[in-house]
Amino acid sequence: MARFRVVFCVLLLALGARHVTPAAAAAAGVRLSALAKTLVVEASPRAGQVLHAGEDTITLTWSLNATAAAAGADAGYKAVKVTLCYAPASQEGRGWRKSHDDLSKDKACQFKIVQQPYAGAGKFEYRVARDVPTASYYVRAYALDASGAQVAYGETAPEDCFAVAGVTGVTASIEVAAGVLSAFSVAALAVFFVLENRKKNK
Question: Where is the signal peptide, in residue numbers (predicted)?
Answer without folding.
Answer: 1-25
